[in-house]
Design goal:
Helix 2 runs antiparallel to helix 4 and helix 2 crosses helix 6. Helix content is 69%, strand content 0%. By secondary structure, the protein is mainly alpha-helical. The protein is globular, with a radius of gyration of 16 Å.
């Protein structure tokens, strides 16, 4: 038995990715539950959009991650997380698209990892379930 054979568990890998994505996004959401979304409302208004749209951050960072953890409506929940990340990049991080961080990595590597992980979870889910 080889190491590659021992670690070949595609479904377990997908569940691990889904769970990790959900927990990490939920931490972002929890910060907004505790601290509010006033700053996000300001950014949304600055972009010329109605400030109430800022409340959608709760969908992408609280509701969708909880659905991912529960393994319910996985594809729609993962797509909500992906959309949330695209909006975050457009509202907050466009100035960093071509920038490197202080450690030499891409300034948006965390946002990219969340976005791509959400897409992978959506693409590998079976019938919308975990």
């Amino acid at each position: 038995m080889t190491l590659a054979t021992l670690f070949h568990h595609p479904r377990a890998g997908v569940v691990l990715l889904r769970t990790t994505l959900a927990l990490l996004m939920l931490l972002h959401g929890w910060a907004k539950v505790r601290g509010g979304i006033g700053g996000i409302e300001t950014m949304v208004a600055k972009a010329g959009l109605p400030p109430y749209l800022a409340y959608a951050v709760y969908l992408g960072e609280v509701v969708a991650p909880l659905l991912l953890l529960a393994g319910v409506w996985v594809v729609p929940a993962a797509l909500v997380v992906a959309i949330n990340m695209v909006v975050a990049v457009l509202l907050v991080h466009t100035g960093q698209l071509l920038s490197l961080g202080s450690t030499g990595g891409w300034a948006l590597e965390l946002q990219a990892l969340f976005l791509v992980s959400a897409l992978v979870v959506a693409m590998t889910s079976r019938s919308g379930k975990g």
